[in-house]
C-alpha cells in the first residue's frame, strides 16, 4: 500500500470516528411541556366582550357562529360558537381544530366538535361531535395537554353547569384505528367546588422523548353532603385506569370547615352573586401555608368599579371584573387584564369563614406569558386580620360614637354602618377601622344604592388630634383624619388636608 492510500485510509478513519463521537455526544433537545410536548402548538380564539355588555348575563349576539372568524368550516344553523382551539404541528401546515358551541334550538349544553383535513376531498370537515358537562359559556375554557404521559393528545374542557357546579370533561385521542370514534371521553367530573389537575414533574427521560411519564391525578374539592355544616368539605382524588381508559375515584378525604352561624352563612351563600360580591368587596391579605400573615401580597375586590387588583411586592396588576357566576360556596369570576387584554384570569372564590376566603386562580393565556399559581390560597379580610394579629391593637372594628367635623356630622353605629349629615344631605354606608404597618386607618364605604353621587370609598389615616401617635383613638374627644391611598408602595398621603372630628356632647 503506497503512502497516498495510507493517508486516505487514516483520514477516512479519523472522519468516521469523529462523526460517531459527534452523534453520541450531541445534546438531545428536550421536549418541553410549554409547546404541547413538541407535537402541537395551540392557540385559542375567544369572543371578546365590549364594555357596554351586561357581563352578568351571557349575550348570544356576541357569539353568532355565522360571523365568528377562525373556524375552518361553517357551523350549522342555530349553532353558536363559544371557543376555538387550533392545534398545528411543526411538521405540517394543516391545522386541527376543536370548536365549542351551543345549539340554541335544542338546549344549553355545550358541545365540542373536531375538525380535520380530508386529504381525498381537499377540504376541512367536521369529523366528530360530543357533549360536555359545561353549560355556562362565560366560565368555559378549553386547552390541550399530555396529562396521561403517553404523548397522546388530550383536550381538557372546564366550565360551570346550570346547577352552579364546576365541571371537567376530558377527551383522549383514540389510538385504536379500528374504531370510528377519533376521541373518547376519559373523565366527566362535576362538583360544587374546585377541580384541579395535579401536575407533577416528570423525569428527564420523558422530557427527552425516551420514556413515558406518569399520568396526572385529578382532585375535586366540594361540599360534604353528609354533614349539616355547609362549610364541611370532601376531597376526592381521581387516578387514570388504563384498563378502563377512564379516570376513577380512588381516595376520599373529609375536611371539616369552620363552625359559623348557619343563618348568616345561608344569607351569604344564597345563590345571589351580588350578595357575595358585596361581602368580598374589600382588601384581603394572603395567609402563608404556615398560618402567618403575608402583608406583601393581597387582593382588592371592587365590585362597584368592576375591578380586581392583584398586589404582590412591587407589582400591581389591575384586571377588569367581567363576569360573575354564583357557586354553591361562593362565586366564580372571569377577569381581563387592562394592559394585556389577551390575559384572562378565572377566580374561584369560596367562603372559608366570615373573615377568610379560599381562592383558586387559573389563567387562560392566549400569548406566551408565564403562568404561576402564586395567588392561590387563603385570604383574610384586612380589618379582621390586623385586629387578631396583635393583642395591643387599640383600634376596634366598630364603635358607637357621634362626631362633628368640617365635612358634617358623622355618626358611627355599632353594627358597622355610618351616617354623614352635611347641608341637608345624608350619606350612608359602611365603615371599618383597621391597621396596616402600625398605621391606624379608617375606611368609609358609601352605599351607591342610596347615594347616586357616591362613586368610591375613602381611606383615612387616623390620629388623636394634636398628637403624633394614636392611643385609645376611639376614646379621644378629637380625632384627626388624613386622606391616604393604599398601593404597592404602602400608604401614600393624598395631601388633601386634615379633617378634625370632635366628639359631640
Percentage of β-strand residues: over 45%
Query: Total number of β-strand segments?
Result: 29
Which value, in Å, is the CA radius of gyration?
A: 29 Å
Total domains: 3
- C-alpha end-to-end distance: 122 Å
The helix count comes to 5
Largest sheet: 8 strands, antiparallel, barrel
Low-confidence stretches: 23-68, 366-372, 384-396, 468-472
Question: Which percent range fits the helix content?
Answer: under 10%
Structural class: mainly beta
Shape: elongated
- Mean pLDDT, nearest integer? 76
- Describe the strand arrangement of the main beta sheet, using strand numbers: 14-15-16-17-18-19-20-21
Task: Give your account of this protein's structure.
The chain has 505 residues and is mostly beta strands. It has 3 domains: 33-255, no CATH class; 262-389; 401-503, no CATH class. The protein is 10% helix and 47% strand. It is built from 5 helices and 29 strands. An 8-stranded antiparallel beta barrel has the order 14-15-16-17-18-19-20-21. An 8-stranded antiparallel beta barrel has the order 22-23-24-25-26-27-28-29. A 5-stranded antiparallel beta sheet has the order 1-2-3-4-5, with no helix packed on it. The longest helix has 23 residues, at 3-25.
Amino acid at each position: 500500500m503506497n503512502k497516498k492510500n495510507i493517508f486516505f485510509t487514516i483520514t477516512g478513519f479519523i472522519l468516521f470516528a469523529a462523526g460517531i463521537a459527534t452523534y453520541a455526544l450531541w445534546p438531545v433537545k428536550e421536549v418541553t411541556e410549554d409547546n404541547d410536548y413538541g407535537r402541537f402548538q395551540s392557540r385559542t380564539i375567544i369572543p371578546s366582550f365590549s364594555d357596554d355588555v351586561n357581563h352578568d348575563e351571557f349575550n348570544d349576539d356576541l357569539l353568532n357562529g355565522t360571523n365568528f372568524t377562525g373556524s375552518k368550516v361553517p357551523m350549522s344553523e342555530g349553532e353558536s360558537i363559544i371557543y376555538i382551539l387550533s392545534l398545528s404541528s411543526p411538521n405540517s401546515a394543516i391545522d386541527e381544530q376543536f370548536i365549542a358551541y351551543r345549539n340554541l334550538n335544542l338546549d344549553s349544553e355545550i358541545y365540542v366538535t373536531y375538525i380535520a383535513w380530508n386529504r381525498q376531498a381537499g377540504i376541512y370537515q367536521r369529523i366528530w361531535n360530543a357533549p360536555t358537562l359545561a353549560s355556562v359559556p362565560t366560565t368555559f375554557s378549553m386547552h390541550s395537554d399530555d396529562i396521561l404521559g403517553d404523548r397522546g393528545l388530550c383536550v381538557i374542557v372546564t366550565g360551570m353547569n346550570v346547577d352552579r357546579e364546576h365541571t371537567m370533561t376530558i377527551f383522549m385521542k383514540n389510538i385504536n384505528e379500528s374504531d370510528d370514534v377519533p376521541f373518547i371521553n376519559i373523565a366527566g367530573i362535576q362538583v360544587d367546588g374546585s377541580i384541579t389537575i395535579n401536575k407533577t414533574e416528570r423525569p428527564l427521560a420523558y422530557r427527552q422523548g425516551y420514556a413515558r411519564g406518569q399520568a396526572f391525578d385529578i382532585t375535586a374539592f366540594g361540599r360534604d353532603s353528609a354533614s349539616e355544616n355547609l362549610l364541611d368539605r370532601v376531597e376526592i382524588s381521581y387516578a387514570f385506569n388504563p384498563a378502563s381508559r377512564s379516570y376513577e375515584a380512588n381516595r376520599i378525604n373529609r375536611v371539616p370547615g369552620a363552625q359559623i352561624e348557619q343563618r348568616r352563612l345561608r344569607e351569604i351563600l344564597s345563590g345571589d352573586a351580588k350578595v357575595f360580591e358585596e361581602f368580598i368587596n374589600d382588601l384581603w391579605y394572603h395567609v402563608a401555608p404556615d398560618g402567618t400573615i403575608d402583608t406583601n401580597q393581597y387582593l382588592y375586590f371592587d365590585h362597584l368599579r368592576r375591578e380586581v387588583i392583584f398586589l404582590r411586592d412591587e407589582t400591581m396588576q389591575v384586571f377588569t371584573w367581567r363576569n360573575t357566576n354564583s357557586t354553591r360556596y361562593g362565586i366564580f369570576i372571569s377577569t381581563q387584564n387592562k394592559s394585556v387584554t389577551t390575559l384572562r384570569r378565572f377566580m374561584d372564590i369560596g367562603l372559608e369563614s366570615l373573615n377568610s376566603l379560599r381562592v383558586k386562580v387559573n389563567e387562560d393565556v392566549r400569548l406566551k406569558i408565564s403562568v404561576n399559581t402564586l395567588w392561590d390560597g387563603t385570604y383574610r379580610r384586612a380589618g379582621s386580620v390586623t385586629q387578631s394579629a396583635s393583642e395591643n391593637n387599640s383600634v376596634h372594628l366598630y364603635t358607637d360614637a357621634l362626631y362633628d367635623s368640617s365635612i358634617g356630622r358623622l355618626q358611627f353605629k355599632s353594627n358597622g354602618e355610618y351616617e354623614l349629615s352635611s347641608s341637608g344631605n345624608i350619606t350612608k354606608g359602611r365603615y371599618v377601622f383597621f391597621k396596616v404597618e402600625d398605621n391606624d386607618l379608617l375606611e368609609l364605604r358609601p352605599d351607591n344604592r342610596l347615594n347616586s353621587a357616591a362613586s368610591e370609598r375613602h381611606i383615612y389615616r387616623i390620629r388623636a388630634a394634636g398628637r403624633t401617635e394614636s392611643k385609645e383613638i376611639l376614646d379621644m374627644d378629637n380625632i384627626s383624619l388624613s386622606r391616604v391611598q393604599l398601593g404597592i408602595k404602602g400608604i401614600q398621603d393624598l395631601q388633601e388636608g386634615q379633617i378634625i372630628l370632635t366628639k359631640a356632647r
